[in-house]
Write a structure and sequence with these properties.
alpha/beta; two-stranded antiparallel sheet; TIM Barrel; 10 strands
């Protein structure tokens, strides 16, 4: 692993020259490097040893936040992260975000499922608290009052620091905000798919609501399942891999046009196209900490350069225009000033 700075006890020392580009999540006191390392591949396409190598390099490059779920690889992702934190002795330096609601043993957001799922996650993560707990998806069969009340008890018990929502609609987020006005926990973050090839979910009501409520948008699939990164042509797709099939859906005329513009910007900047794609997402209003996915040190290093990349106004405008599908009316004015 090139460029590692391994300590005498196997720990990893963050590079001293990493500039501070941190962002704060919602109205919390949680402030981290503006990219989270996603653990969806840990224990699935990436074995434990290689996952730990990625985690080590992520910290070396200034990263602090790790994003996972109790349902990723049936809990194996959390186990790998927990093992890594225990072996490195770095729990207090790492911000852990995990999700509940989709594990087969604790499906849904009833109070009992939330409490039992959190306890199971804490055991796998080998920790006594979760920094950011997400509801993984809406549960129409359970009232938000019940779910939020369960989290209130977990916060009071010191098991959870802050609450987020994943894949929630604008209407559901508004309902939660109204309920939280009575004193129950508020959503500090919302995790949604967002990329140059998928702007419709976030832009519009979600962004305006996030700005008004000081809630951070936490994008995932920011490389469109790898289409804006490792996959450059149809031959690179594995038809037996779920992510490849999803990425292949972008392989039409629109996706090809976006790739062409990305290539031009990347060439001018002297960086990978994945770096440019992530930098564009980071520049959007209300975006907090996007989640990145990598399966190699090389991929990770390219992505981690994005917060330090300064795109010109013309380059941003070119990407905005290229990413607007015909017949769509997105909001290119939603760039950070």
């Amino acid at each position: 692993m090139s460029g590692e700075n391994i300590g005498t006890q196997g720990g990893v020392t963050p590079a001293a020259d990493v500039p501070d580009v941190s962002r704060t999540i919602g109205q919390t006191d949680i402030s981290v490097f503006p990219l989270a390392l996603g653990g969806a591949v840990f224990g699935w396409t990436l074995p434990s040893g290689r996952s730990i190598d990625l985690l080590d390099r992520f910290v070396e490059l200034g990263g602090r936040m790790v994003d996972t779920s109790d349902s990723y690889s049936s809990g194996m992702s959390e186990q790998i992260i927990g093992k890594w934190m225990r072996e490195r002795g770095n729990r207090s330096d790492v911000v852990v975000a995990t999700k509940v609601g989709r594990h087969p043993d604790f499906s849904g957001l009833s109070a009992s499922n939330i409490v039992e799922a959190v306890d199971a996650s804490l055991e796998r993560l080998q920790t006594d608290y979760i920094d950011l707990l997400y509801f993984h998806a809406e549960d129409p069969d359970v009232s938000l009052e019940e779910s939020l009340s369960a989290v209130e008890n977990l916060i009071q018990a010191g098991k959870v620091r802050a609450l987020g929502a994943s894949n929630f609609s604008a209407d559901r987020l508004l309902e939660a905000r109204i309920i939280a006005a009575s004193g129950l926990p508020r959503f500090e973050a919302v995790a949604l798919e967002y990329s140059l090839l998928r702007r419709d979910i976030v832009e519009g009501n979600i962004t305006m609501m996030a700005i008004a409520q000081q809630m951070s948008i936490m994008p995932y699939f920011i490389l469109a399942n790898g289409f804006l990164g490792r996959h450059r042509n149809i031959k690179s797709f594995n038809p037996n891999d779920t992510r490849s099939r999803r990425a292949a859906q972008h392989g039409g005329r629109h996706g090809t046009h976006v790739l062409r513009v990305l290539d031009n910007v990347a060439m001018a900047q002297g960086v990978d196209i994945s770096t440019v794609a992530v930098a564009w997402v980071l520049g959007r209003s209300a975006v907090g900490i996007p989640t990145i996915g990598a399966e190699s040190i090389r991929e990770l290093e390219a992505l981690m350069h994005a917060p330090h990349l300064q795109l010109s106004r013309q380059q941003i405008a070119d990407l905005d225009r290229a990413s607007v599908e015909q017949g769509r009316n997105w909001l290119p004015s939603l760039n950070r000033s």
